[in-house]
């Protein structure tokens, strides 16, 4: 804030510093809506504006009335429309400076959102990352227990992925995993959840009493062979216990019938 204060004092020495601080209080926001809301309120409350409209690509906030002279402060991402009946050059200069700062801060918000998404999702598969996914899964399991609705967790392991990585390279293995994850995502409902647990292991949260329907959709979309274990979510079990049991059932299924639909060689021909 010190550099910002210095900038305003040098450019507009007659502007009270408390007004400057109030007008740029949006700098503390990294949520786009909160940023738009606070920017509009700051201008409306701390200037002589009759009306204010602040717009970004995703949100708009309107305060006051469209009376007086319209002044536009527009950049690539942030647009400010301000209506004045009585104004002065210093106030307009101040808003011009604020608009520059708002545009710069919005770019910081975009960078923050990009970094947040990188932390949320696995870059290869588009599934939730393990850390974030398990936290969301824990909340989902507690919700199922509270409501008493039917839901399942499916532990999935891609068959022969290690062999494919060894014989054809990790790029081929990664592509196989990506295609399978996409088949899962396309088959899921909005309330379902996909988590990359690690390596070739994937967890599916199925918010339905019929997990077989989802599995059948996946099989219809992908020829990639996989083994799985299904466990219903029940009130007496913790998430750890459910995952442990699903993992055990998956390995039993893999041992009993390693290829559910096709052998790995046929799978490679379809990639």
Description:
- The chain is an alpha+beta fold and 271 residues long.
- It is built from ten helices and eight strands.
- The protein has two domains: 17-119, no CATH class; 130-269, Reverse transcriptase/Diguanylate cyclase domain (Alpha-Beta Plaits, 2-Layer Sandwich), CATH 3.30.70.
- A hairpin with a 2-residue loop joins strand 6 and strand 7.
- It starts with a helix and ends with a helix.
Q: What name goes with the CATH superfamily of the largest domain?
A: Reverse transcriptase/Diguanylate cyclase domain
Largest sheet: 4 strands, antiparallel
Mean pLDDT: 86
Shape: elongated
Count the beta strands: 8
Low-pLDDT runs: 259-271
Q: Helical region count?
A: 10
- % residues in beta strands: 15-25%
Order of helices and strands: HHHEEEEHHEHHEEHEHH
The number of domains: 2
Q: What is the subunit arrangement here?
A: single chain
Helix content: 40-55%
Spatial strand order of the main sheet: 2-1-4-3
CATH topology of the largest domain: Alpha-Beta Plaits
Structural class: alpha+beta
